[in-house]
Amino acid sequence: MDATAAAAPAGLERIVATFEAQIGWCHEFKSPFTAHTLELVRDNLTNGGALFGLVVPWPGHPLADALPIRVVGALHMLVRTGRAPGLSPYYPPHGRAAWDGAAVAREIETAVAANAAYVRDAISGPPQTNEIGRSAVLMPAYCEIARRTGLPLRILEIGASAGLNLMWDRYAYRYGERFVGRADAPLTIAAEWRGPWPEIAEFPRVVERRGCDRSPIDLNAPEAAERLLSYVWPDHAERLSRLEAAIALAQKEKPPLEKADAGEWLERHLAKPFEGAATVVVHSIAWQYFSTEPATRARAAMSECGGRASGAAPLAWLSYEQHAGGAAAEVRLTLWPGGARQTLARAQSHGAWIEWLGAAGA
């Protein structure tokens, strides 16, 4: 499975504890449908149902591998692709049947048993959420980097999935009464703003954008868009709607993506100074999925490039990551030359709100 593997496979007790934790987070993130579905999945496992043989023992770390999200994503994918007709009536927005836990439990068992190989393949890799709401958190950070350096941006995203957040400057944003972006943008992302407003008037110019992922998603490939949509919780209608809009844009304007490990890819793209722009290495809710070797190489590549950075060729490391389960994610910036580090903001991991700290986060 993943290179995040623990020393020994995880047994049922550890797996169930991970599902229990995710159930709580789903309630916290206002997705009762996903929480209830996970409860049924947990019961399927403890009762030795069809999922047991696919999940137990788990050869990695079930929490770091986001095992519950893999499983509910696989179930949603079965529904979205028509492979689970008995389950579909209970899934928003596909069906309108009232929730019936016993009936849904039976349909989960039936769907998994009938599609065991498909489910096994679906859970074999990390979730590819590419949550587009995160652009509403990254956008003001990009503006801050441009303000501090006085330069346009060169953006290198690692763990980019389908590359949707690489197109952040093609979207518009609404933070309460504030609107940033073009009125005719193909997508407007709304987020709650907390803290001081950094006076964003317009987007900085982007002179280059590239992304890499171990398993990049080509949204023009069969079922690729459905796979990406399957990781969005079914009762989060707004998230599904804006992701569909971003996918439609990406299918027309294919983001530049490369299949590669983060470390090796950054070594190549940071090997020479890039003058006339601030190079921004960015990742959002992705670092936890990097195995040790690529993460170590990526960190070393950034440190080496930072040591060569100049006012004409600065380097920024922009991370938007959740450092503790259940806690708010943090937007952190390291800027070279100098290597000054700062927490710019705290934010909900789907981008529902952002608490801007700015200079106060130093």
Structure report:
With 362 residues, the chain is α/β, with parallel strands linked by helices. The chain has 2 domains: 12-122, no CATH class; 132-361, no CATH class. It has 11 helices and 12 strands. β10 and β11 (340-347) form a beta hairpin. The longest helix is centred in the first third of the chain and has 17 residues, at 12-28. The protein is globular and about 60 Å long. The model is unreliable at 1-6 (pLDDT under 50).
Brief summary:
This protein has helices spanning about 10-30, 30-45, 50-55, 65-80, 100-115, 115-120, 135-150, 225-230, 235-250, 260-270, 290-310; strands at about 155-160, 170-175, 180, 190, 190-195, 205-215, 255-260, 280-285, 315-320, 330-335, 340-345, 355. It has about 350 residues and is of the alpha/beta class. The radius of gyration is 21 Å and the shape is globular.
Measured between the Cα atoms of the first and last residue, the distance is 38 Å
The helix content, as a percent range, equals: 25-40%
Gyration radius, rounded: 21 Å
In what range is the share of β-strand residues? 15-25%
Characteristics:
362 residues; 2 domains; 9-stranded mixed β-sheet; 3-stranded mixed β-sheet; 18% strand; globular
Compile the SSE list and pairings.
Blueprint: H1 12-28, H2 32-46, H3 52-55, H4 67-80, H5 101-114, H6 116-122, H7 135-149, E1 153-158, E2 172-175, E3 178-180, E4 188-190, E5 192-194, E6 206-213, H8 224-230, H9 237-252, E7 257-259, H10 262-269, E8 278-284, H11 292-308, E9 315-321, E10 329-336, E11 340-347, E12 353-356
Parallel strand pairs: 1-6, 1-8, 2-4, 5-12, 6-7, 8-9
Antiparallel strand pairs: 2-3, 9-10, 10-11, 11-12
